[in-house]
Amino acid sequence: MLATILNAFRVAEIRKKLAFTAGILALYRLGSFIPVPGVNTEAIEQIEENYAGSNILGLLNLFTGGGLSRIAIFALGIMPYITASIILQLLTVVSPTLEKLQKEGEVGQAKITQYTRYLTVALSAAQAVGYVFLYRSQGQSAGAPVIDNFSLGAVVLIVLCLTAGCVLLMWMGELITQRGIGNGISLMIFASIVAGLPNGIQAWWTNPDQVFKVMMPFVALAVIAAIVFVQEGQRRIPVQYAKRVIGRRMSGGGQTYLPLRVNMAGVIPVIFAASIMAIPPTIGELVPGMAAVSRFFSPNDWAYIAGETVFIILFTYFYTAVTFNPVDQADNLKKYGGFIPGVRPGRPTAEYLDRILARLTFPGALYLAAVAALPTILINQTSANFYFGGTSILIVIGVALDTMKQLEAQLMMRNYEGFLK
User: Fold this and answer.
1) Last residue of a domain, which of 172, 197, 222?
2) Which residues contact 380 (CB under 8 A, 6 or more apart)?
3) Which of 4, 35, 57, 259 is the one with CA 20 to 30 A from 284?
4) By the 8 A CB rule, do 227 and 396 touch?
């Protein structure tokens, strides 16, 4: 990994992309420290402890890089955009109009992206209104008003600032995807989680349990190695291409393979599941009299773990089916004269790929669910604070691996010969 980064810095064009990505992420982190106008900064310090625990507010605050606890411009983070993407992808399956747009290529995808942006604005505004009243109730409980002048004008101003901050983050994420390295939305979540790494190291170092302090580095290394091993695991399907005569020349032939990863969905199902499971406890926190819902779906409770596990498995199958179509793969192989040895081209090939993909997706989904739930189970059993949950670990490692692959692909496109040549 270090060699890949060093090689990338020796290529001027990639260096510019890395600098652009780092600059956007730095602006994102800066906006997480700038509070919206009309809030009492002294009162914010009194309610920050509500966002430091393992409740749902602590999880959302981790995904926003601490901006939620500071009532910053980027307090909503990028989660409304992810929620809008989930809704649009689910509607694509049941809506013939959206399904038709998806099959129209880049033009249809641009339309779906536009609808996702509109839905993001609506979700951001609704979520911002809820957070304003949540901040007000927390300030009343703490005895210090968080919002200095709670009037209609102040509420509208704060809601506009929070909504504009989310829209700005959405635009910045798309800029990274277009001009930078890797997926911009994933990198923003990655930056938010990694920003809490110093606090996590401090919590580990100051932990009074000496056994936990000694064993934690070995457990972390073992978990990282296991995640990398499964993330990179794949089933290679051999593909043989027949020789074809074009004019007076014979072309084609040769043998290659079709790689099917154990976890083809990556970390997307975990992000989807975390977004969906954050809705009930968030409603419980925002709506007066529904605190029991928030406690029932606490991230350390069995209901949250069970719900997250079910959603991870479902989203893994759903996202894999969306990104990999066995029928299209079989048609493409048949079109270019390729076939799998021992399998007839066409429909039998599609059925063969679908059967293998179903067998690979199930252990991949169980792996994602296990890694997401394991730290929470260990915390409940040992009462030790791991600071980062399984969802955060999966996101960080998954995004890091994908970014490294993007860098390697950029280097290969430019025929880079190596760091020492």
Assistant:
1) 197
2) 300
3) 35
4) no
Q: Give the whole-number percent of the chain exceeding pLDDT 70.
A: 81
* Closest residue by Cα to residue 161 from 131, 137, 192: 131
Amino acid at 41: T
- Its pTM stands at 0.76
* Whether residue 370 has pLDDT greater than 80: yes
Structure tokens, 272: 């989807």
pLDDT digits (tens, 9 = 90+) for 309-368: 888 888 888 888 877 888 888 888 888 778 888 888 888 888 888 888 888 888 888 888
Q: How far apart are CA 359 and CA 347, in angstroms?
A: 19
The CATH number of residue 48's host domain is 1.10.3370.10
What is the CB neighbour count within 10 angstroms for residue 338?
A: 21
Both 222 and 75 in a single domain? no
Number of domains in the chain: 2
Domain span holding position 140: 1-197
Q: Which pairs from 379-382 meet CB under 8 Å and 24+ separation?
A: 379/54, 379/300, 380/300, 382/212
Among 186-190, 199-203, 281-285, where is mean pLDDT lowest?
281-285
The amino acid sitting at 67 is G
Tokens of 108: 């249809």
Stretch 138-158: mean pLDDT: 77
Domain presence at residue 419 = no
Distance of CA 313 to the CA centre of its chain: 15
Residue with more model confidence, 8 or 232: 232
